[in-house]
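User: Predict the structure for this protein chain, please.
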Amino acid sequence: AAPPAALLPWAIMPASIAAAFAFGVPGAVASTAVIAVIAVPATTLGRGPFAGDGELVYAWLGQFLVGTALATLLIAIVARGRAAQRALQASEARLRELADAIPQIVSVAAADGRPVYANRRAAEYFGAHATTAQDWIGRVHRDDRALLGARWSAALAAREPMQAELRLRGPDGAYRWFLARSVPVLDADGRILRWYGTSTDIDAQKRAEERLRLLAEAGERLAQPLAEDGEGRAGELLERIVGMLVPAHADWAIVHASKGTRSEDPRAWAARHGDAALQPLVEALARDSAPYAT
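Assistant: Here is the predicted structure, written as structure tokens:
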């Protein structure tokens, strides 16, 4: 058994543990080295808690130094792992704060497209319960799902970024246009690890483009029949125009047209309501409000 004096060196273990916690592996190595530098010469000179005759003295000293080194190194490794984990959590928290601060919808998906993270804007637009790929796809306008599916399949096969303009349903049930982009993150072997995606609201831009297109097309169509084919042709044209307006841009629309300014001039009108039950009411309103009624 070790002499009672041989137990005294273990009293310095708290200091070694503190060095391991504070400085990691370098602290553990340094504290063990300092103990060895002091203990080995002292034991050789017959001083200190390990002083004595025989080989057992050096066995006890070696056991103490090895035990001290292993204990402090293990503590240092555990402390480093916990510090790295805390740093990673802090970094993730900062990234989440950044993602929540921007107006775009930000998402992270697994290699197979399964959502694993969405920022605050996504929760506000889709709802906190939308946590699966099917939930998200269900918010895509049915006319845009085929395009999204084709683009996504091509991106998966080629391991390349995906981009598509599509309409997404919001919490109020209305659809807005978004520019969706997803970029894959690959490992060293070219396998997809995850997807980073953003969806930017471009609804105002898309509606402005559509209004300009509509005005240009309507102006081009209006310029011809009224001057060439008379009232019948004009009425057919106006029906096509209100068909362009309803329901894409309005719930209902009434359009009047005339060749001149006198009340006896021939006139044409067209009316349409998105609700078929209200169509007769809109037609009656169009007849009564025609500026050139005879």
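The chain has nine helices and seven strands.
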